[in-house]
Write a structure and sequence with these properties.
- This protein is α/β, with parallel strands linked by helices and 258 residues long.
- It has helices at 24-36, 47-56, 73-83, 98-106, 119-133, 177-188, 196-203, 213-226; strands at residues 16-20, 40-44, 61-65, 89-93, 111-114, 150-153, 156-159, 164-166, 172-173, 193-194, 236-239, 243-246.
- It has two domains: 16-133, Rossmann fold (3-Layer(aba) Sandwich), CATH 3.40.50; 150-246, Winged helix-like DNA-binding domain superfamily/Winged helix DNA-binding domain (Arc Repressor Mutant, subunit A, Orthogonal Bundle), CATH 1.10.10.
- The protein contains eight helices and twelve strands.
- A hairpin with a 2-residue loop joins strand 6 and strand 7 (156-159).
Length: 258
């Protein structure tokens, strides 16, 4: 996904991961596990170091601790998402509380890890997020792709090739990876009633515990971005007791009414 005025650099054969944690021992442990698994790694202990690292080199993903010593990871995640909407974020938390998870989804984190976790679990989450959000490493000679699929609804165009949502004026509306996947599912099959479980399968991260409220939070975020009046949606409508449906016609590309 691209954002206006912000080119996205191609991901190198060794994606660079930024680890942000104020515990030097944990930083060193994460650095070692990721480096041994074929990643380049940058480390930072606070927000200043985070922004300095991002300014110095392109990164494929950020691992960010939820509770840093002198600043809250939630605030850093919010600022990071606003400034780099296409950059995946995995939050690290010492709590498995559902409310923390809902807050992370509100802030558009792509995934989260609950301490303590093993190197194998860490790598599974990192690789799953990269598979969803970045080109596959080592595919320098990709086969030619079909022309971009342009799906139009209302004043919006969803570009499935560039993974962009554009308004009538051509401006890009920034979407997180999960938000894009949700909208892609709806727009691809207008008129279909989606259950929460089906939408979770489309948007969740690998090995992440599923809970219904995450879908409601995600839909609320997308409605705020695309609906003329989010309190009275005309695109993503609720089918009481069933789920959600994309209620307007879609033209172009590969849209289906099945």
């Amino acid at each position: 996904m691209h954002t206006a005025g912000m080119p996205v650099a191609a991901v190198p054969a060794r994606p660079r991961i930024l680890v942000v944690d104020d515990d030097p021992d944990l930083r060193a442990s994460l650095d070692d596990a990721l480096t041994q698994s074929g990643f380049d790694v940058s480390v930072a202990g606070d927000g200043i170091g985070l922004h300095a690292a991002l300014a110095e080199a392109p990164h494929a993903l950020v691992l960010l601790d939820l509770r840093l010593k002198d600043e809250h990871g939630l605030a850093l995640a919010r600022g990071l998402r606003e400034r780099h909407p296409a950059l995946p974020i995995i939050m690290i938390s010492g709590s498995s509380d559902e409310m923390d998870r809902v807050l992370l989804l509100e802030l558009a984190a792509d995934d989260f890890l609950v301490k303590p976790f093993s190197p194998r679990e860490l790598l599974a989450h990192v690789r799953a997020v990269l598979r969803r959000t970045q080109p596959v490493a080592g595919t320098a000679t990709a086969a030619p792709r079909e022309p971009a699929a342009q799906l139009q609804f209302g004043d919006w165009t969803l570009d499935l090739r560039e993974r962009e949502l554009r308004g009538a004026d051509g401006r890009v509306c920034a979407l997180t990876p999960a938000e894009f996947r949700l909208l892609e599912a709806f727009v691809g099959q207008p008129g279909k009633v989606w259950t929460r479980d089906q939408l979770l399968e489309h948007t969740r991260s690998l090995e992440t515990e599923v809970f219904d409220r995450s879908v409601d939070v995600l839909i609320l975020r997308v409605r705020r971005k695309i609906e003329p009046n989010p309190k009275h949606p005309r695109y993503i409508c609720t089918e009481r007791g069933l789920g959600y449906v994309f209620a307007v016609p879609v033209t172009g590309g590969h849209a289906s009414t099945a």
